[in-house]
Amino acid sequence: MDFKERILTTMNHEEPDRVPVMGLIMDPTTVNQINGKKPIDFVGMLKKPLLKHIIRYLMNTNWLWSKIYDGNFSGSLEGAIKLGFDANWVIYQLMKLCKEPESTLGVAFHDIYGRVWELDADDNGNLMVNYSRGLLTTEEQWHDWVEENTPLFETSVKNATRFYQELTEQHGDRIFPFCYAAPGIFENSWQPIGFVNFTKFIYQKPEFVRKVIDFQTDLFIRHLDAAMKPGLEVVFAGDDLGQKTGPLMRPELVEKLYGDSYRRVAERVHAQNKKLIWHSCGNIYQLLDKFVEWGFDGIITMEPTAGMDLGKVREQVGHKLVLIGNLDVSYLLVKGTQQEIEDAVKKAIKDAAKGGGYILSASHSHPYVDATRLKWMVEAAHKYGKYPM
Amino acid sequence: MANDILEKMKSSLLDLDMDATIENVNSIIRSDGTVSVQEAIDAISEALQVVGKRFQDGDWFLTELVYSGEIAKAAMELLSPLLAVGTSQQLGTIAVGTVAGDLHDLGKNIFINFARSAGFEVIDLGVDVAKEKFIGAVKEHSPLVLGMSCLLTVTAGEIGKVIEELINQGLRDKIKVIIGGACLTAGFAKDVDADAFAPDAVTGTDIIRKWITL
Description:
- The structure holds two protein chains of two kinds.
- Chain A is an alpha/beta fold.
- Chain A has one domain: TIM Barrel.
- Chain A has 16 helices and 14 strands.
- Chain A has helices at 3-11, 28-35, 42-46, 49-59, 62-83, 139-148, 150-171, 185-190, 195-204, 206-228, 251-271, 288-294, 310-317, 332-335, 338-352, 371-384; strands spanning 22-23, 87-91, 95-99, 107-111, 115-121, 127-134, 176-181, 234-238, 242-243, 246-247, 275-280, 298-301, 322-327, 358-362.
- Chain A is globular and about 60 Å long.
- Chain B is α/β, with parallel strands linked by helices.
- In chain B, strands 2-1-3-4-5 form a five-stranded parallel beta sheet, sandwiched between helices.
- The longest helix of chain B is centred in the first third of the chain and has 20 residues, at 37-56.
- The two termini of chain B are 36 Å apart.
- The chains are: A alpha/beta, B alpha/beta.
- Chains A and B meet through β6, α9 and β10 of A and α4 of B.
């Protein structure tokens, strides 16, 4: 079987020749480590006033942004191929480097949705980017933002379409690129506004919240279409609906606010005869039945640090969902021994792979995930993941 | 009569009705001492204990925890200035901040809201707090507890550095250290010699409450 047949057989809850392995490689630290490339000390350059000015100008041109961003994901796919993965995710985002007095560097990325992403570097100078806060704390700010950024939304959709198409053309004969439409509708609703403000608006300005969700749903669907354009049989989307101990919102409230949006997303994917894998961080046991009801075909993540146990998830959902993930990135794939990784792979396979429907992967991407440990994970999957079991 | 209005205020908070809670607080303020400000604050604290139990039992979710905290905060903003100087019954002082390199404040702010409403004095050190600032706050305010929040695995190492500095400066025995945040675990707390890990704001406040009653 080749990688594609292996993935598609698994997606049908049938047993392929062996358990497929997916990479969540995207952080420059991991990409550079696998491909043996020296990092560009972007943050170091931004600390120099003149360079900062030039970099800001250049980064905000669509040409350079696309070159750097697309190049990183091309490197991700090459790295994943090198390590023997069957698939790897590719995720499009458009951001602008903006003045940000609150940030140590004096600049930060603002994405098209109104979120601030702080830049940092690891010890080797590899870029690390993290969401820190929203820019749109009032209803008026949100409306102004949407009006002012309409051209950027168009650019984002256009770029995303090209991004997914080109990466599939360049690498799709050697690996399955899981084209991931992101960020999700829930995240895009609250993160630009901030969780506390958004929560207040749910109770105090429900009509505004409805407007935000409807807008984000429409925009998300356009990015989803971009992710489906290359014609691959499986597409990814997601929303971080969980926190460490449970869902961020009461499942009934998620249904009320987002249920129709999620059903619309699933129907859109199924109308094109494709399958939808849904990403959500956190502890999401209470939402698993909803995922099935909304029409998702599979889920990825199941973070062990949020108490997610693969065996329990399989027990709860049976083969109604394909499961992907669960290998820990807080210790195991950062510092774990080869034996510990082999044991974790064996356990994951035992817990979820019987009858197909399981793709082994890390629970999340993370800049500190180590390439050697990823290799051990793939090797263990090849060794212990052979069907029939 | 006094109990009625206090019960009404608690109920409106637990019904997540901001307007009704504020109206009830204002009725208390206008009641010419029939109900004291301290009694009203104690009632809010009791209501938040119910909130905490509902959250820990899985009956309430983060949105409800956050919004009840916001209602309590709004009520406290009306009541606190009316407390006569020296009559405040603070349970103790907590200094809390998000570690250096990390700008996330959601978890920290929920905790602060909760701990303040529970009767603690909380010194908010903000986000991206350098080791020196944590140590300086411990020296300046002599809090009972130092809380450190951290969302990012890449900055979790900062917690160990702060604790190490507390040891170096002979301060570790004088203070309890509690940590919380998405990337942290009880095992991590043990590794860095923190006294406790709190998976959420409610548990964190409970742990600290137990410490002061021991």
